[in-house]
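so ive been stuck on this for like two days lol. basically i have the seq below and the ligand is magnesium ion, smiles is in there too. i just want the complex predicted, nothing fancy, no docking runs or whatever. if the output looks off dont worry ill sanity check it later, just need somthing to start from for the group meeting slides
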Amino acid sequence: MHPEIARIQTMLGGEGYVADREIATAIYLSMSLRKPLLIEGAAGVGKTEVAKVMARALGADLIRLQCYEGLDATTALYEWNYQKQLLHIRLTEASDRTVEQREHEIFGEDFLLKRPLLEAITREAAPVLLVDEVDRSDSEFEAFLLEVLSDFQVTIPEIGTIRARTTPYVVLTSNRTRELGDALRRRCLYLWIEYPTFEKELQIVLGKAPGINADLAAQVAGFMQLVRQAKLEKTPGIAETIDWGAALMALHRDHLDRETIEETLGVLFKSQEDARVVRNQWLDLWLRGLERLRAESRPWSQALVERVAAEGALRR
Ligand SMILES: Nc1ncnc2c1ncn2[C@@H]1O[C@H](COP(=O)(O)OP(=O)(O)OP(=O)(O)O)[C@@H](O)[C@H]1O
Ligand SMILES: [Mg+2]
């Protein structure tokens, strides 16, 4: 492995983020080429967290733009501080400055409310700009974003063009609720994050549920692999796994059995329909899968869990 990529991996690991080689490489390239990194993947696989740990590891500020339907350029870029402008007009009413002068004053930088994009551009030290869930914004906003990400400059009619002092590190995430345009994709480096392998999830659980015993952590990670073979409305992500580990510890459980799992279903499955299907269709199969894994003498691995899942017809 390239020493720089290994260094990134260690740096992220130090911030509690388990990055496989592919993720570490994408982050490294995005940082060294200063190209935005577009991350896609299912819910809860660790997309947003990449930007957060990158900022921590770099000692940079994190500036987050949360996207939603109807988000428009002004909300993302800047707004005029209307109240402050009004106040200023009041206070200068008695002055001998002309109306033009006073108008000019209130459209200066002091009266600007910087929103995330302008904020990111005007920082002295390069921040990490997280454009989270960009698929939720509409395509007009996407076009505008593309412009900003191309030039790192914005034009405010009353003030003029503001250019970035340093190019921010940019991370965009998407859950693919709609396809992003080609133009935006071309501007970015791309990373697809899969659900974690058994090994990766085990490492995450051990890191994020401190004090958990290694056996229970392996059972949790193995069970999650079985769970993700099933077709559910909302497949649990890594956040659910971590919560589950913490819940099991809070209940002082040191292994998984039917009762324990049934008691804690609400930590993993967040819809009534899924909870019902799990109880009626899957739980028995998963428990049987877990038994088979326990009967193995070798340490568990992704390959082993997959084979058990295939043999037990746990897939659908
Ligand atoms: N590789 C990892 N190492 C350590 N923790 C992780 C990793 N991936 C995810 N997590 C943890 O899982 C949780 C969910 O991650 P995150 O919020 O980044 O997911 P997401 O892909 O952005 O999900 P969503 O699509 O729902 O926004 C976080 O608490 C994060 O700390
Ligand atoms: Mg997210």
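Residues 11 and 271 are 36 Å apart (CA to CA). The chain has two domains: 3-71+119-193, 198-311.
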